[in-house]
């Protein structure tokens, strides 16, 4: 890891490996620099206990007389280690993947409007989607006050020392009828978005997510899903041909999606 620090040039560097849970501190300087009692590099003076020198053969243009760089290891402070631990815990919990960080079951709350009934309207109705997003962003949930507060815990320590902003917080929303979808909260811009491919009906089947080629396929009709589809596919210009069957089959003609009801042969 010292070579990684050296490649970054002169200065104070923290090199970490989230998957392995390792972090090291290094200070890179020119070999001919003299650390003075009241010099300009207090960090290197204060943190050079038990240092290990790794003198590099390659020289750097910002060193006088093309002197080689010296990379020195220094112990990280308790605050720095705690910051890294917070980042690593977030990583292990699934913050870097599509696993869920926060689960919100809307059946547990009495103040949920019609946006909490089913995932299908939320997929196609921008008004209901916006209402859901506002609710999830501000709602107090078990263990955290809101998505914003969840991210703040990491920002205060991690961003200060490691310049890492958690790239996302994944929220699994479970609707009253048992359907669900994953939302991604982007810490960088404070926005919530649906994660494509994660919407599921009450039986766990994939849900039509838009008027595009990727939504072509067969969708089992569960409960009231056909009535919901008829209402909301119309909003995005997808014609649905009523028939007799248990499956909604959708095809893509190169321009738009079209769907019809049929019974599939096994």
Spatial gap, N to C terminus: 57 Å
Number of helices: 7
Shape: elongated
Report strand order across the widest sheet.
1-2-4-3
What is the structural class?
alpha+beta
Overall number of strands? 12
What portion of the residues fall into strands of 2 or more residues?
25-35%
Could you tell me the radius of gyration in angstroms? 27 Å
Oligomer kind: single chain
Helix content: 25-40%
Biggest β-sheet description = 4 strands, antiparallel
Model regions low in confidence, pLDDT < 50 over at least 5 residues: 36-59
Total domains = 3
Strand and helix order = HEEHEEHEHHHEEEEHEEE
User: Would you tell me the overall average pLDDT?
Assistant: 77
Describe the protein.
With 266 residues, the protein is of the alpha+beta class. It has 3 domains: 2-76, no CATH class; 80-194, no CATH class; 213-262, no CATH class. The protein is built from 7 helices and 12 strands. It has helices at 2-7, 42-46, 78-95, 119-124, 126-138, 147-162, 225-233, and strands spanning 11-17, 22-30, 53-59, 68-74, 102-105, 169-174, 180-186, 191-194, 217-220, 240-241, 247-252, 257-262. It has a 4-stranded antiparallel beta sheet with strand order 1-2-4-3. Strands 5-6-7-8 form a 4-stranded mixed beta sheet, with helices on one face. Helix 3 (78-95) crosses helix 6 (147-162). It starts with a helix and ends with a strand. Residues 36-59 have low confidence and may be disordered.
Question: Quick gist of this model?
Answer:
The chain is of the alpha+beta class.
């Amino acid at each position: 890891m010292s070579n990684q620090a050296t490649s970054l040039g002169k200065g104070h560097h923290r090199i970490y490996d989230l998957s392995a849970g390792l972090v090291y501190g290094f200070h890179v300087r020119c070999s001919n620099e003299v650390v003075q009692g009241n010099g300009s590099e207090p960090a290197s003076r204060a943190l050079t206990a038990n240092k290990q020198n790794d003198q590099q053969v390659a020289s750097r243009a910002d060193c006088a007389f093309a002197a080689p760089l010296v990379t020195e290891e220094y112990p990280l402070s308790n605050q720095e280690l705690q910051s890294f631990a917070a980042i690593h815990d977030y990583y292990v919990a699934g913050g870097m993947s599509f696993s869920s960080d926060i689960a919100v079951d809307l059946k547990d709350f009495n103040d949920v409007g019609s946006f909490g009934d089913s995932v299908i309207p939320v997929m196609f109705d921008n008004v209901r989607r916006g209402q859901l997003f506002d609710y999830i962003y501000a709602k107090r949930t078990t263990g955290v006050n809101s998505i914003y507060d969840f991210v703040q815990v990491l920002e205060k320590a991690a961003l200060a020392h490691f310049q890492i902003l958690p790239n996302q917080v994944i929220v699994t929303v479970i609707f009253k009828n048992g359907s669900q979808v994953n939302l991604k909260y982007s810490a960088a811009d404070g926005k919530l978005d649906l994660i494509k491919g994660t919407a599921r009906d009450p039986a766990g089947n994939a849900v039509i997510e838009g008027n595009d080629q990727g939504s072509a396929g067969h969708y089992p009709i569960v409960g009231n899903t056909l009535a919901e589809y008829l209402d909301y596919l119309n909003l995005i210009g997808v014609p649905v041909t009523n028939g007799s069957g248990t499956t909604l089959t959708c095809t893509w003609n190169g321009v738009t999606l079209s769907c019809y009801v049929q019974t599939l042969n096994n």
